[in-house]
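Weekly sync, protein design subgroup
Attendees: M.S., D.O., the rotation student, P.L. (late)

Item 1: inverse folding check
M.S. brought a backbone from last month's batch and wanted to see whether the design step gives back something sensible before we order anything. D.O. pointed out we never logged the input encoding, so this time it goes straight into the notes. Structure tokens as presented (296 positions):
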């Protein structure tokens, strides 16, 4: 699917994704070198490569080893953690650590410049791609980069797919068929576009964390019977189906709410709640709080 139907920008978005993955590996190497030096900065600072973190790293490279001096470089809310910072910055920073961190920071800066240039090129307005990207960004968990990848990988013309299921199948997000002698075994998703799959999985992980989102509610429903990875893939599949309908109808996403499934299946939700109360040792008596038409 992806090889025949992707747009001209797909090479740029894929290269950007590869660089992001490479940058993540460099950040992990940075954490490992700091851990080897006994510097536990990551346990206190949310972002080691933030403004304060980079200032502390620059001071370490310049030869400053005093934890109090390094901790005093904290900014904003991090200054409330000065005692913890002094303890975290007490280590055995050696010349070899400084050399490695200097090389890693140089590579990170180079990748950041390249990523910024790639993002500017991808974000260049192209009609109808720009309007499609804007519509896809209304989906929970779908940000600018995600919508750009979706548009470049699947295009904006959905007429080539008879249904959303055909698009999902082409993307390799539908379960495979593993059945023998009438017994169905665990099924893994089919092979498809790995770039699209990775992007949708990341979007799903972001969507399930949003409050009041129907995608998060669907994730929790699946998690009652399946494992986390299966539920995340199901949400990724749902996001792709929603994207198909938005591009087909040229509309935006309308949130149904986290209580959508309870409103849709009121009787099942009531039975489940009563059963849970009985398991906890309570006796529940149901009373309809909404008066009937005859009582008005």
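Designed sequence read out in the meeting:
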């Amino acid at each position: 699917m992806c090889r025949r139907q992707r747009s001209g920008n797909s090479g740029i978005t894929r290269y950007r994704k590869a660089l992001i993955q490479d940058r993540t590996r460099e950040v992990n190497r940075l954490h490992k070198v700091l851990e080897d030096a006994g510097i536990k900065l990551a346990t206190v600072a949310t972002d080691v490569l933030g403004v304060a973190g980079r200032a502390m790293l620059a001071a370490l490279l310049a030869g400053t080893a005093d934890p109090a001096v390094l901790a005093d470089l904290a900014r904003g809310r991090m200054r409330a953690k000065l005692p913890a910072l002094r303890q975290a910055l007490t280590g055995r920073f050696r010349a070899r650590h400084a050399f490695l961190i200097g090389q890693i920071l140089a590579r990170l800066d180079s990748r950041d410049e390249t990523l910024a240039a790639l993002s500017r090129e991808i974000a260049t307005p192209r009609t109808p791609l720009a309007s499609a990207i804007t519509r896809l960004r209304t989906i929970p968990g779908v940000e600018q980069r995600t919508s750009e990848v979706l548009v470049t990988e699947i295009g904006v013309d959905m007429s080539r797919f008879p249904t959303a299921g055909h698009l999902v199948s082409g993307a390799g997000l539908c379960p495979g068929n593993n059945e023998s002698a009438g017994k169905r075994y665990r099924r893994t998703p089919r092979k498809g576009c790995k770039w699209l799959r990775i992007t949708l999985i990341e979007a799903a992980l972001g969507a399930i964390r949003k409050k009041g989102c129907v995608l998060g509610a669907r994730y929790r429903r699946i998690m009652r019977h399946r494992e986390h990875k299966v539920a995340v893939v199901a949400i990724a599949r749902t996001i792709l189906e929603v994207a198909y309908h938005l591009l087909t109808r040229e509309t935006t996403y309308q949130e149904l709410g986290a209580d959508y499934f309870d409103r849709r299946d009121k009787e099942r939700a009531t039975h489940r709640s009563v059963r849970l109360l009985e398991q906890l040792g309570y006796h529940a008596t149901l009373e309809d709080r909404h008066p009937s038409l005859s009582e008005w």
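Discussion: The chain has a mean pLDDT of 85. The chain is about 60% helix and 0% strand.
Action: P.L. to compare against the previous round before Friday.
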